[in-house]
Amino acid sequence: MDQARQLKPSSEVYRALHAGMPSSVVGEINDLIDDLKGHPADSLDAFLQTRPHALALGRRMISALMAIAIRDSEEWFKRNQPARDEDWLRLLASKMWDATEDHRDFSAANAGLKIVTFNFDSHIEGYLARSLRSLYRIGEDAANDLVAQIGIVHVHGRLPPAGKLTPDWIDEAAKCVKIVVDKDILAYTSAAATNAVSEARVLCFLGFGYHRQNLWRLQVQSLAAQDKHRGRERDIYGSAFGLRPGEHAWIKNRFSGLIELGAEGQNCVDVLRNFYVFRD
Fold this sequence. Notes:
mainly alpha, 3-stranded parallel β-sheet, 5 strands, 55% helix, globular
């Protein structure tokens, strides 16, 4: 949201949004940016719920901003290797293939794993595919097929591979962006995410903001209430890096007290290692 509020004529996203647009639309884009600056919402999704007339422009803005963020992230990972004690995806991947003999065992060994993400990028899929190629000495297509068999749900949608930030790419990407007001479109991904959560014996929230809307989409509150009524049926853990005691209390209340949270200074790797998340 801060990046959207800070858009100005010199920025790449601003220029891409204006490219090829008639003067009337250019004016609407500028008005939208001005409107954002004074709005109390902490996300573009929340902002657009109050501005239904701006949905088309809002989706294009989300797409362009995310394309830049994804590109910058990919460039960072090309130049840097996350520290082992900070790389939760590396730890997860190592556990995923720990019990396998070769790639033919991979799908069966991880049949119970589901990943629900609110991110638009394909970083998880890309990381796992590259790792599988290296580990099993298999081709790109074979690695991608194995990753596709893992239940990875993108609640907000998944953007196409980021290329140049052209109007055509932005138009195509905007079609993939799902927001709260897209009730029919969100129904499928929300159902897939909710099913993954409700069927899990072990739930672990990593890097999750515990925003009210996202908890609602996963039906966490009703699920936790049912668990408490029936007797605890699942173990729930979550990272809470940077969150204070009052925020911990709010989160635990949403989970009917059934979630165990990491400490304020513990990262995602700490949570995965300190709690009984990985099981045979």
